[in-house]
Amino acid sequence: MGVGTEIKLDYAFVADYAQVIDNKLTVVGASYTYVFTDVFPSTHMLSVAGRLRAPEGIDTVPLRIEVVPPNEAYTIGVDMELDHGPHVRPYDGKVGLLFAITMQVPLIAPGLYEVFLYVEGERVRRLAFEAQAIEQHN
């Protein structure tokens, strides 16, 4: 089943906090583009959340989320299988598969941190945020 035909990423974003409970997505501090820190290196708690729309009959959908810092110094990758939980209800022959993952990301240097989402092995979205020292912000 190709991502381009039957499985669609409806939305995805970075957030301060995200959690899926009873097929509802709870999010705080979503869609930011800057993170400020006192010093480098540092760490940042990052949530990535969103929804895939898939055919009702599909069993599972593989999802991979990768975080890459400036200069590609490392890659943090998380793999998961999204499936129909007990609270997923079909609509119009489709199901909405919500996801939320929280991870601690090393902020090794100022610059652009990218978050890539892959569905069934195909890259479907690029998110990003800039990390800056607080004194650069003032």
Question: What's the average pLDDT?
Answer: 93
Task: Say how many strands there are.
Answer: 9
Q: Report helical residue fraction.
A: under 10%
Strand content: over 45%
How many angstroms separate the termini? 49 Å
The value of Rg in angstroms is 16 Å
Could you characterize the architecture of this molecule?
The protein is mostly beta strands and about 140 residues long. Helix content is about 5%, strand content about 65%. The chain has one helix and nine strands. The strands form two sheets. Strands 3-9-8-5-6 form a five-stranded mixed beta sheet. Strands 2-1-4-7 form a four-stranded antiparallel beta sheet, with no helix packed on it. β1 and β2 (about 25-30) form a beta hairpin. It is elongated and about 50 Å long. It starts with 7 loop residues before the first strand and ends with a helix. The mean pLDDT is about 95.
Topology of this protein?
Blueprint: E1 8-21, E2 24-30, E3 34-37, E4 42-55, E5 60-68, E6 76-83, E7 94-107, E8 111-119, E9 122-133, H1 134-137
Parallel strand pairs: 3-9
Antiparallel strand pairs: 1-2, 1-4, 4-7, 5-6, 5-8, 8-9
